[in-house]
């Protein structure tokens, strides 16, 4: 989903979370464009309407390829603001490490935000430590046969979506999600995600980071979100009151205002 607003604005690149796709930004995209910014909402590999199946995506790099290609293709001098939601925080972290000079600011929306000196999977490990095995409720676990061997995947169930992710979102958006979510992988067993030397101060650490705290999230607790902020000193934290895990659905106007504020602040 690509398009532009008026000239002279920033270029927001929006990255969805586990099992979701570019569709989850449908409320936010027109708001940002109306404010004069270019906006690209991406499907990661095997997500949204991307044609691949998850068993055809062997690595986290392959999964992140649509984002890496979009950032690399941005013209010189264009101000990119990357926005990663939930698992999408790991995708934007990889893009920041690879192409830091292209990124004016990175926004971690209620997202996995890794830190320099530890592997990216530490965020998911902490989430697992803080939740009980029954957290995923009616979600379906599966094993995919990939070129790298068997890999675990997950499809969110409707009860999980309603209780943990979309608790304060309109019922229409919850219904949309039950129709569109696809199998997702956390890539916790991926060599890149386990690499403690991947993220560096010179690259990832040099990009301005803002963490948007969803205050009513039933999936990532406020404590968990602030724990990630504390891992990366210098990260700015902004709160959205009343936002569930899907802030782009539960509080779209407030989220848009936060993003516009970030863009103007880092001009």
TrEMBL record:
Pfam families per the record? Abhydrolase_6 (PF12697)
One Gene Ontology term of the biological-process aspect is:
jasmonic acid metabolic process
UniProt-recorded Gene Ontology molecular function terms:
methyl indole-3-acetate esterase activity; methyl jasmonate esterase activity; methyl salicylate esterase activity
Q: Give the InterPro entries listed for this entry.
A: AB_hydrolase_1 (IPR000073), AB_hydrolase_fold (IPR029058), MES/HNL (IPR045889)
Q: Which residues form the AB hydrolase-1 domain?
A: 13-257
UniProt protein name: AB hydrolase-1 domain-containing protein
């Amino acid at each position: 989903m690509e398009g532009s607003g008026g000239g002279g604005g920033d270029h927001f690149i929006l990255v969805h979370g586990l099992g979701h796709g570019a569709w989850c930004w449908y409320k936010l995209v027109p708001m940002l464009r109306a404010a004069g910014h270019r906006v690209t909402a991406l499907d990661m590999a095997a997500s949204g309407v991307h044609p691949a199946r998850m068993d055809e995506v062997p690595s986290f790099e392959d999964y992140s390829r649509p984002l890496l290609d979009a950032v690399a293709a941005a013209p010189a001098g264009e101000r990119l603001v990357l926005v990663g939601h939930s698992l999408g925080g790991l995708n934007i972290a990889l893009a920041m490490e690879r192409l830091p000079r292209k990124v004016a600011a990175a926004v971690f929306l209620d997202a996995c935000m890794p830190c320099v000196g530890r592997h990216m999977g530490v965020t998911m490990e902490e989430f697992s430590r803080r939740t009980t095995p029954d957290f995923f409720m009616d979600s379906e676990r599966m094993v995919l046969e990939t070129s790298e061997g068997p890999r675990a995947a997950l499809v969110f169930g409707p009860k999980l979506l309603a209780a943990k992710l979309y608790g304060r979102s309109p019922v229409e958006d919850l219904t949309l999600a039950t129709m569109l979510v696809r199998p997702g992988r956390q890539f916790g067993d991926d060599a890149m995600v386990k690499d403690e030397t991947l993220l560096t101060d010179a690259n990832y650490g040099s990009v301005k980071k803002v963490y948007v705290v969803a205050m009513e999230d039933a999936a990532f607790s406020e404590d968990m979100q602030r724990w990630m902020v504390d891992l990366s000193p210098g990260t700015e934290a902004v709160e959205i009151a009343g936002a569930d895990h899907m802030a782009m659905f539960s509080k779209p106007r407030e989220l848009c205002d936060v993003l516009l504020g970030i863009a103007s602040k880092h001009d």
